[in-house]
Amino acid sequence: MTTVPAAVAIGTLLPLLLLPGVASADDKLNDNTQNPPPSGPSGRVEGDKLTSTAGGAIVFDRSKNGSGGSVGAVTSTTPWTPPACWYAPKYTPEQLQKTMEPVWESGSTGGQWDSEQRNRYVNGDPYKDFNKDKTGKGYFWDSYVDKSYPTGWDKCTEAPFWVDEGEPPPADIENAVTPEILAQLAYAEIRVPGTEVTLAPEGTTKVNLPTWAWLDGAEFKPVSVTASVPVLNIQATTTAVPVSLKIEPGTADATTYPASGVCELNGDQIGEPYARGKSDETPPCGVRYLRSSGDGSYQLQATITWKIHWTGTGVNEEQELPAGEFGADQDVIVQEIQAVNR
């Protein structure tokens, strides 16, 4: 579990809100308070909106996401994670003034720092009087942070900078919000159904008896999340599509069907339901255990791979993101077939 510095948790202290990388995506800058991390599968409240007075925060539309009690976030199949911090509009000139001046007056940040900041935002190096002459024509951008504080959350260290309305941020600013970054952040909001497969025989099977496995196609449909920044009129939709099921029997003493253990999506279904009269057939998706589980059970792991892509403002063709996985274990009891002696 990531440990968040104590200073970050005290969102009511103005000096800390001004430290680069500290302001959370959930900061409410009109009263300088920070919401505590809400509960839920990902530490986020379903349907929440990341808000700021300047209107530059991200709004997530999760109405087409997975639902139900067993949903969860996908894990990238490659060493990749969405951005831990990014830049977007945060302050109007007046809001920045109301945020900065109490810090300077408190003297808690040191005379040299206060003097440098006054030069930057008041004395014209490069902004004069907080750019009030441009009120309504742009915003000061600042950093937002994923409130779970993953590795890299403190890397957005640029001081608040001005961007005229309709103009792009400076080219040297990394992680300035774009449709692509929105898509990556929406990736973290994707929730997919749980992956408990249906087995036949169910729960308890026999040594050397093919066990059929399948998933209800109705539960495994594409899901998507749209992220937008209304004040910039940009958005991106990230979509996850189920493509395969990987079965790991929980023991080396087993054979999977197919041999790879990977059952591909066929139409809207993975695997094939068992039906009476198929006991002598080889299942298209399943497992055959070669040894009894004794007094216990094997932990069969079923993992769905989801192909993930995005489209967004100015991007009509699907752009790939790393595939994601979500799986779960389930108990399988394997018994010896009892012979009857006559």
Span between termini: 61 Å
Overall geometry: elongated
Helix content: 10-25%
Mean pLDDT across the residues is 83
The overall strand count is 18
Largest sheet: 13 strands, mixed
Cα-atom radius of gyration: 27 Å
Structural class by SSE content: mainly beta
Q: What share of the residues does DSSP label as strand, in percent? A: 25-35%
Tell me what the structure shows:
The protein is mostly beta strands and 342 residues long. It is built from five helices and 18 strands. The protein has helices at 6-9, 14-18, 93-106, 111-121, 179-187; strands spanning 27-28, 33-34, 59-61, 75-76, 85-91, 138-145, 161-164, 198-200, 204-206, 211-215, 223-229, 234-248, 254-257, 262-266, 269-271, 286-289, 298-312, 315-335. Strands 3, 4, 8, 9, 10, 11, 12, 13, 14, 15, 16, 17 and 18 form a 13-stranded mixed β-sheet that branches. Strands 5-6-7 form a three-stranded antiparallel β-sheet. The termini are far apart.
SSE order and pairing:
Blueprint: H1 6-9, H2 14-18, E1 27-28, E2 33-34, E3 59-61, E4 75-76, E5 85-91, H3 93-106, H4 111-121, E6 138-145, E7 161-164, H5 179-187, E8 198-200, E9 204-206, E10 211-215, E11 223-229, E12 234-248, E13 254-257, E14 262-266, E15 269-271, E16 286-289, E17 298-312, E18 315-335
Parallel strand pairs: 9-18
Antiparallel strand pairs: 1-2, 3-11, 4-18, 5-6, 6-7, 8-10, 10-15, 10-16, 11-12, 12-14, 12-17, 13-16, 14-15, 17-18
